[in-house]
Amino acid sequence: MEFNVTLLGQAITFAILVWFTMKFVWPPLTNMMDERAKRIADGLAAAERGKQDLEAAEKRVGDELRKAKQQAMEIIASAEKRATQIVDEAKENASTEGARIVADAKGQIDQEVMRAKEALREQVAQLAVIGAEKILRKEIDAAKHADLLSSIKAEF
């Protein structure tokens, strides 16, 4: 009987241990495991949301880059067009300025030619007067007159 009593005592002790474990130990363990499973599930869901957010952000970044590149191309095209306009305007202004300078130069040349002609006329008139004076001072002789005119020519 001793063996049966011992076995019966051990069975009762085991039953108390099982009851105690199920009553006081098992519920906190179950709660901890449930909380951990919930935290893991929340972490996985957050990771999935983060992955989706990252993909969406990468897509937005790609769209913004495309838009920025397109805007840059438009700005460059506009700048090139404006540069061409500026060059054309500068050529036109230079052509107009060149024509004005040429016209001014021609006007100055014409004035200088007129001044030179006037100065030449004055010199011719002076020579004629000087020649006439010398002719009148000397006697009237055709050979002497020719010689005198030759000498006047040589002087000037």
Automatic annotation (TrEMBL):
Keywords, alphabetical: ATP synthesis, Cell inner membrane, Cell membrane, CF(0), Coiled coil, Hydrogen ion transport, Ion transport, Membrane, Transmembrane, Transmembrane helix, Transport
UniProt membrane topology term: Single-pass membrane protein
Subcellular locations according to the entry: Cell membrane; Endomembrane system
Record Pfam families: ATP-synt_B
UniProt-listed InterPro entries: ATP_synth_B-like_membr_sf, ATP_synth_b/b'su_bac/chlpt, ATP_synth_F0_bsu_bac, ATP_synthase_B_chain
UniProt superkingdom: Bacteria
Coiled coil: 51-82
Membrane spanning residue stretches: 6-26
MF-aspect GO terms: proton-transporting ATP synthase activity, rotational mechanism; proton-transporting ATPase activity, rotational mechanism
GO cellular component, one term: proton-transporting ATP synthase complex
Function: Component of the F(0) channel, it forms part of the peripheral stalk, linking F(1) to F(0). The b'-subunit is a diverged and duplicated form of b found in plants and photosynthetic bacteria. F(1)F(0) ATP synthase produces ATP from ADP in the presence of a proton or sodium gradient. F-type ATPases consist of two structural domains, F(1) containing the extramembraneous catalytic core and F(0) containing the membrane proton channel, linked together by a central stalk and a peripheral stalk. During catalysis, ATP synthesis in the catalytic domain of F(1) is coupled via a rotary mechanism of the central stalk subunits to proton translocation.
Record-stated family: Belongs to the ATPase B chain family.
NCBIfam families in the cross-refs: ATP_synt_b, PRK05759.1-2
Subunit annotation: F-type ATPases have 2 components, F(1) - the catalytic core - and F(0) - the membrane proton channel. F(1) has five subunits: alpha(3), beta(3), gamma(1), delta(1), epsilon(1). F(0) has three main subunits: a(1), b(2) and c(10-14). The alpha and beta chains form an alternating ring which encloses part of the gamma chain. F(1) is attached to F(0) by a central stalk formed by the gamma and epsilon chains, while a peripheral stalk is formed by the delta and b chains.
Protein name (Swiss-Prot/TrEMBL): ATP synthase subunit b
Lineage: Bacteria, Pseudomonadati, Pseudomonadota, Betaproteobacteria, Neisseriales
Gene assigned in the entry: atpF
